[in-house]
Amino acid sequence: MTRLTRRALLGTIGAAAAASTLPATPIFAADRSIRHYWWGNPERDKRTFAVIDTFQKKNAGIAVSGETIGWGDYWTKMATQTAGRNMADLVQMDYRFLFEYVHRGALKPLDEFVGKSLMIADFDKGPLDGGKVDGKLYALNIGSNSQVMVHNTRAFKEAGIDADLINWTWDDFGKVCEKITAKSGGKMKGSDDLSLMIETFESWVRQNGREFYGPEGKVTATAEDVASWWQMWADLRKAGVVRDKNKTVILDPPIAESGIAVGDTAMSHYWSNQMVGIQAVAKDKIGAAMVPHKAGGKPGQFIKPSMFLSLSRDAKDTEAAIAYMNAWVNDPEISGILGLERGIPCSPKVRAALTPKLTEVEKLSVDYFTAIQSKVGPLPLPAPKGAGEVRDAFMRIGTDVVLGKAEVAEAAGMFIEDAQTIVERAQ
Amino acid sequence: MKRFFARNAPAYVFLLPWLIGFFLLALGPILASLYLSFTRYDMVSAPRWIGWGNYEYMFTRDRRFWKALEVTFTYVALAVPARLIMALGVAMLLDKGLRTIGLYRAIFYLPSLLGASIAIAILWRQLFAADGVVNQVLAMVGIQGASWITDPDTSLYTLVVLAMWQFGSPMLIFLAGLRGIPRDLYEAAEIDGTPRWRQFTRITLPLLAPVIFFNLVLQTIDSFKTFSSAFIISNGTGAPADSLLFYTVYLFNEAFKFFRMGYASALAWFLLVIIATFTAIAFFTSKYWVHYENERD
Prior knowledge:
The complex is a heterodimer of chains A (about 425) and B (about 300). Chain A is an alpha+beta fold and about 425 residues long. Chain A has helices at about 5-20, 25-30, 40-60, 70-85, 95-105, 125-130, 155-160, 170-185, 200-205, 225-240, 245-250, 260, 275-280, 320-330, 330-340, 350-355, 360-370, 385-400, 410-425; strands at about 1-5, 30-40, 60-70, 90-95, 105-110, 130-135, 135, 140, 145-150, 265-270, 285-290, 305, 310. In chain A, the strands form three sheets. In chain A, strands 1, 2, 3, 4, 5, 8 and 13 form a seven-stranded mixed β-sheet that branches. In chain A, strand 6 (about 130-135) and strand 7 form a beta hairpin. Chain B is mostly helical. Chain B has a single domain (about 60-290), classed as Orthogonal Bundle (MetI-like fold). Chain B has 13 helices and two strands, in the order H-E-E-H-H-H-H-H-H-H-H-H-H-H-H. Chain B has helices at about 1-35, 55-60, 65-95, 100-115, 120-125, 135-140, 155-165, 170-180, 185-190, 195-225, 230-235, 245-255, 260-290; strands at about 40, 50. A two-stranded antiparallel ribbon of chain B has the order 1-2. The mean pLDDT of chain B is about 90. The interface between A and B is medium-sized, with 31 and 23 residues.
C-alpha cells in the first residue's frame, strides 16, 4: 500500500550512500523526509501522489512518502501505528475521530504556526473552527461536505421521476423506489437498504428534533428513533423496492461494489465529496439529491468538515510537515490537482481559482452545495470517544434486523442500551 | 544431576535458538501483558492499575465476550473432529503402498500450507458468496443455495469446511503412525477372518492412539487460536451479527480498534487458561485411552 515516489526512493538511497561514506555530514542533515497517511480510493490516491510529486519538485530536499489504504482498514492501522509511536507526520483526520485522537494526546496543536508558516487568515471561519478542540486548532480543514443521496440519472429519467430532489420527503422517497423497481422489472431496485448506515440514521434523529450525541457525549437518540428507522426499511424491504438483504449486510463495501456502481440500485447515501469517486466507477451519469426530509420535521443534514490534515505527536520535522500542509491549502497548482475530490475547500481564493476549471461531476457537487445551504441544520457536537464502536454496534444489531432474526423494537432497545454502555465505558 | 545433563545436553543445544528467541523476544511481552491485564491502558497514555476490574467486567457485563466463547467453542467442537477424521481417512487411503505416494502426499499437504493464508480466506469468501461458485454449482443441480457467508446461521460452517480442507499436517502424522503398525497383526486378523471394520477398531485405532492424542492436542490448541481466516471472512469485525466473532477476533478488535489494551490482555490470559485447561484434560484422560506399545520404565 505504501508507494515511495521515485524521488523519495532516490533520496533514501542517496542518504544511505552519504551516511555510509560521510557519516554525520550536512548533506545527510539537509535531506528531510515526512510521511503522509490518508484513506483513499483510486481517484484520490492518483491525485494525492500527483500533489506529492509537485510539492517535492518545488521543495527540493523534502521527501514525502505517501501511505494510503481504504477507509475500512484505515483506523485499525492508525491505532496500531499510534500505539507503536510510529504515526505518520501528517495524518488525514475525520470529524468523528478527531476528539478521540486529541484526547489521547496523539495530535499536536497547530496554533503556534498559524500566521507564520501556516497562512489561513482569509479562510471561512465556520469550516475552519470544525477542527478546533478545547479552543485549540488540531486539524486543518481540507474540504467540507454534506450528506447526499447519489442517484442514477438515467434510471430516474426512464422511470419518469419528477420529484423535487432537494425538498422531497421520505414518502416521496418510497414512491420513487417503487417506480424505479417497477420500471426495471425488479432488475434495478430503487435504493440501497440504508438500515445499517448510521450516517443517514443520524439525519433521521435530527429530523425528529434530537441529536444522536448530546452535550458531554451522552447518547440522546431514543429507541423509538431507531425502531422507526429500522421499521421504515423493513417495510421497503417487504415491498421489494430496496437492495437484497444479503448485499445489505456486507459492511462498508468499497465504492466499486456499491449498488450505484454495479447497477443494482438507483440510489444510495454518500458524502458529497465522494461523488467524484463514484462517478469514476459508475456507468451512468450520477445526480445529487438531499436526504429525504421528514414532513414537518427539522433539518437533518448538516455541512461538515469532510477531512482534515493533522500533525501527529510523532512528527519530528514539524517545519517540513507544516510547509507541506500550507502548500496543500494555498498553492494554486496543488489545489488545482486536488480539485473538489476531498470536499469544498474553505479558502475563498482557491474556490475562485477552481471554478472555471471544474469537471461535470465537480460542478454537480458545487451546485448541490449551493442548493442545500439554507436547508441544513447546525453542525452537531463532536462525537464522544467510543463513537466508532457505537457505529459497529449499530451495524451488528441492525444485521439481525435486516435478516429478520430480531424483532425491530427489541433490537432498537438493545442498541440504545449498548450505545450508552459503550460511551460510558470509553470515557 | 550430572547424568541428566549428560543425557540431555544435546537436546538443549538444539533448542538453543528457540530458547534465545523465547527469552529475548517472547517472555518480556508475555509478562508485560500479564501486568497490563490488571490495568486500563489505551496505548497512548500510561497504564492505570484497576485490579481485577477487567476480569470482573469480562465475566459479569460483557455480552460479546460470552458470544465470542460460544462461537469459538462451537468451532473447536466441530472443526477439530472434522479435520482429524478427514486427515485419518486420507492417510488410510494413502497407506496402500502406492508408487506415486510422494506426489499425493505433497498434493494433499498443500492446502495446509495455503489454508492459513490471506489469499485463501479471500478466495473462500468468493466461493461461498451469494453469487459464488458454490451456489452456481448447486444451481446446476437445481438447488437454491443460501448466502453462506452473510447469513449468521451458516457463516461458521464455511469456516469449519475450510478447517477440514486443511487436513495436511495431521494427515502426514497419521500416515507416519499407520506405517508404524506391524503388518503381521493385520495378516493374523485376515487369517482369522476378521472383517475390515473390526480390524480398524481393534488394531488400527488402539495402536494409533498415541498419534491421535498428539494430533488432538495440537489441533485443539490450533483451533482455539484461529484468527486470520475468521478475520478476513468477517471483514475484521466478526460480522454477520457476531456469528464469526472468534475469541481472537474479539481480542484483536478490543486491542487495536477500541484501544483497550488492558482488557485485551485480560482476554488473552483467559484464552491461555482455556487452552491450558483443555490440554490438561486431554493429558489427564489420556491414560485411560492411550496405550504406548513400547513403554519404558
